[in-house]
Amino acid sequence: MRLATPSGFATEVFLLEKPDQTLLPEGAWTLVGDERLREAWTRAGMPEPEHALWVSVPEEEKRLRTVIPWLEHWARVPLHRDATVVALGGGVLTDLTGLAASLFLRGVAWQVWPTSLLAMADAALGGKTGADLAAGKNLVGAFHPPRRLVACTDFLTSLPERHLENGRWELIKTALIMGEMGWAMEMLQEGPVKFAWVERALAFKAGVVHRDPRESGERRLLNLGHTLGHALEAASGYQLLHGESVGLGLLGSCFLAEEQGLKSYPAGLLDLLARRLTHLAPLVAPWADCLPLLARDKKAVRAAHADGETAVTQIQCVLPRPGEPAVQRALPPQAWESAHARLLSTLHQEGVRA
């Protein structure tokens, strides 16, 4: 089915059960795909272009060095400006492929076929492409929207349970941004991820991205859970998956919102959040390791001292509210310290009860 998106939206969005080759580019195209999906792709009767790249890109290789050989390969083919690149894989691969497409010949068209729940729920839509630097996540990138997004739920059947749970957190994030308590509670219960949840999350994000394509205002709300989450992810040495880190960041954001005088979340929802996150407690880094990483956040605001040095004074933080849309507030990085402490305490208490 094709999802309804705002008029003039840059990306066509399709949510299907099985891959459909009629949705591939009509003209010249090539493929960058996760090598683990090659068999599933061909078994589904999908064509493989002559110069396809089947690659393995672990999280630690989300770097510029990874895309250089792809660009050289496209130049040798050669790939022309009217060709389309198809990205088949999870969020790391699709982010890098979109970045490579934005760089090659100053920008060629691309399609994204996300194969992880995390990518379907978040990374694949919105036109953000990126690579990591030693200083932090996604510090290099470009806005380069794909022409088409095709999410096929059949690809999710081979995912390990941990990776399905990883993607569920981005769906829960959407519910908390919207203030949809009932939807958040439903997704926090045990049970499989529902097709309708992905559809709703994609439709919501498409609307936000259309209204704010360059992330200058409303789109920043999509960073709920990411400010503390990115710091926790990096401080864990990336033992935490991205979605797991966002889940921890969501609980921390609930605590920070309360400390900032916003309405408290019901204990029942906080308990459900903590229960799904308890097993991650050993990977939550101490505050001293998180603070320097928070100061590197892309949303940080710096101020110059008299000696010419600059320091981070504030970060644009997203705070959830039960029953109402989330809000943004500029807060110093240190504002997260007590929320971090409460996060650790809550996870340990829940672990003892379990």
From TrEMBL:
Residues 170-299 form the 3-dehydroquinate synthase C-terminal domain. Keywords: Metal-binding, NAD. Its cofactor is NAD(+); Co(2+). This is 3-dehydroquinate synthase. The keyword DNA damage does not apply. It comes from the Bacteria. Gene3D superfamilies: 3.40.50.1970, Dehydroquinate synthase-like - alpha domain (1.20.1090.10). PANTHER family: 3-DEHYDROQUINATE SYNTHASE. Pfam families: DHQ_synthase (PF01761), DHQS_C (PF24621). Residues 56-165 form the 3-dehydroquinate synthase N-terminal domain.
